Structures are given as structure tokens and as C-alpha cells.
Please model this.
Amino acid sequence: MTEVRAEMVANVWKVVASAGDTVADGDTLVILESMKMEIPVLAEAAGTVSTLAVAEGDVVQEGDLIAVID
Amino acid sequence: MSVPDGLATGARATLRVAVTEADTAQAAGSGDVPVLATPRLLALAEAACVAAIATRMTPSLTSVGIAARLEHRQASPVGAELDIEAELTEIDGVRLVFVFIARPADGADQVIGAGTLERGVVDRERFLARAEGARHRLD
Model:
């Protein structure tokens, strides 16, 4: 199980992946917006997205859970 | 989202400008004396950064200012000519770090201003769409 967490305070701009999706290492899960820039959040392992913990428009804090990949 | 392939540290540009009435603190509203306004110096430094990478950007990409640290060390009266040089010193993902220095255009060994500016590379259309979205959220 790999937890993907936010590395900064940001707005969730786009949710690209969905729970149940099969992803490869490096696939984009979510695109955050911070400091006016788009910051892609990538899968850190291959597997199945078992949890997608954010929705578009959410604000995440550093360390918040974004997704779990099994 | 990534920076264009041809963008590399060391890219630089110099702008030569003459201070006009429109550039003064009085005109900018940032003070009440008729010398180069600090926010105007910042705008010129940002313009030098944009010029430094202009030939390396693609039409769909642009950059936006995200952070600035600026020292304004010496006053410049109306008519003074300045050279403002910016150089790209770091690329961290889509974040670009520049240093700039403003000197008298006559070559005098003085520093009028200096600092570090950060700009973020963004997709122009998506950036504007996000900005529109932000406005709708505020409505």
C-alpha cells in the first residue's frame, strides 16, 4: 500500500484518476494549484487506486492524504 | 506541465530604460517623491526576466510572477538611464529563479537595485481558465 500525500498547501484543481483505476508509477492522479502554478501529483507506485481522498475545489494542507494505491 | 526543452539556466537579457515622470513614486502612488518608484523597478526587473526566456518559450506557455525579493539601493531621478539585467539561475520543475541587477547605463560602478525573482511556467489558456474559475468562486 502506498499513500500519496500533499507536499504543500494547495487547491485541488483537477482530479484525474478515480478510485478503482489501475495506474502506473508516474501517472498523474490529481493536479493541484499552488502559487498560481499547476502541480501534478503522481502515482508513486503501480497498482490500483483504492482511495481517492480529495475532490476538485478542496484545499489540502501539507501532509494531507490524497490517494492510496494498493 | 513542464518547461520547454530549450530553456536552460544562464539565459539572460538586459533592458535599457530612461526614467520618465510616469515611472516615479509620485505617479505610481507608492510614495510622494519624483524618483523611480520601487514597484516600477520591480516591473522592469520582471520584464527583463520575461525577455531573458522569451525566445525559449512556446506560444502556449507563459510565465507568471510568484515571488520577489528586491533591494532598491539608490534613487534615480527623471531622465536617468538604467540597465536592468536578469539571468535565469535555477529551474525547479516549473518554477524559475532569476537574479537581476540594475545599474546606471553610463557604466558607473554602482548598483541601483538587485534581487531575486521567481516565476512559474504555466499553460496560458489553462491558467486563464483557472483564474476565471477563481472569480466564479468569489461571486
In short: The interface with chain B takes residues 13, 33, 35-40, 57 of chain A (CB under 8 Å). Residues 2-69 of chain A form a domain with the OB fold (Dihydrolipoamide Acetyltransferase, E2P) fold (CATH 2.40.50.100).
